[in-house]
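_Full entry_
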Amino acid sequence: MRIISQDETIDVPYEHTTLIRVGTEIYLSSIKLRDTLIAKYSTEEKAVKAMEMCREKYLSRMELDGG
């Protein structure tokens, strides 16, 4: 699974990434990118929902792959 920033300038594997939500903003940290803003939402609830969607997609993908 890949994580792509809202402006589509960043595309990294989910498995090699840490996502961090700070209020309405989501940051990505990886080996090459540290605390990089990848998304900003109008409300905190939308940011929380985006994080939940990433986690759910990743977990469902892991189940399909047998992991």
